[in-house]
Amino acid sequence: ASLLTGRSLVTVAMLIALFSWPWMARNMRSQVLSLRERKFVDLARISGKSDFIIVVKEILPNMLAYVFLVFIMATGWAVVMESSISVIGLGPTTGFTLGKMLRLVIDWDMIRLGAWWYFIPPGLVIVMFTGTLMMLTSVIDDVLNPKVRTE
Predict the structure, then answer these.
(1) What is the predicted pLDDT for the residue at 146?
(2) What is the pLDDT of residues 49-66, one digit of tens each?
(3) pLDDT at residue 10 above 80?
(4) Residues sharing a CB contact under 8 Å with residue 82, sequence separation 6 or more, in sequence order
(5) Mean pLDDT on 107-133
(6) 13 alpha carbon, distance to own chain's centre
(7) Alpha carbons 151 and 140: distance in angstroms, whole number
(8) Are 87 and 12 in contact (CB under 8 A)?
(9) By the 8 A CB rule, do 102 and 87 touch?
(10) Residue 86: other Cβ atoms inside 10 A
(11) How is the chain split into domains, by residue range?
């Protein structure tokens, strides 16, 4: 009941993080499993390095770029999710967010009043922000991914 009466942006962010971490964990796990099968890890095993040293010196440095990319994608996804949650009326009750701005346009019935363009500023910011993050992940992937660099 307290969740319905007083929702803060922190509460909404925690709920988004709670429901989005399995996706990130699966992606990280698949990347680690892929790295585990690479030749440089086999060479480290053959040379007698411990599992801890292999993880810290071989796998972790190769994961940092991927973790950064996943964080950027998750940030864009979280903005879209917060906006969606706020538009349907379940977002934070305090402060202003892009989703709450869209919700106010709906609540004030701006479309019926002929002020449809009130949707444009928050919608454009959401689209530009998430689009910029997606382009940033593409550029970072091109720079840091050795498979893409060699092609």
Answers:
(1) 63
(2) 999 999 999 899 888 888
(3) yes
(4) 9, 12, 13, 16, 91, 97, 98, 99
(5) 89
(6) 12
(7) 15
(8) no
(9) yes
(10) 25
(11) 2-150
- Evaluate if residue 1 carries a pLDDT over 50: no
User: Which segment, 3-7, 8-12, 55-59, 114-118, is predicted with the most confidence on average?
Assistant: 55-59
Q: At which residue do the structure tokens 């660099």 appear?
A: 149
Q: What is the pLDDT of residues 122-139, one digit of tens each?
A: 999 999 999 999 999 888
CA distances from 31 to 4, 47, 60, 87 (A): 38, 23, 11, 35
Q: Compute CA distances 49 → 32, 58, 118, whole Å.
A: 18, 10, 61
Place of tokens 């993080």: 17
Cβ–Cβ < 8 Å for 39, 21:
no
CA 112 to CA 142: how far, in whole Å? 46
What CA–CA distance (Å, rounded) separates 3 from 33?
39
The verdict on pTM exceeding 0.85 is no
Q: Which amino acid is at 92?
A: P
Tokens for 72, please give them.
């950027």
Q: Which residue type sits at 20?
A: S
Q: Which residues neighbour 63 within 8 Å (Cβ) at sequence distance 6 or greater?
A: 28, 31, 32, 35
Confidence of residue 117 (pLDDT cuts 50, 70, 90): confident
CA dist 32 and 26 (Å) reads: 10
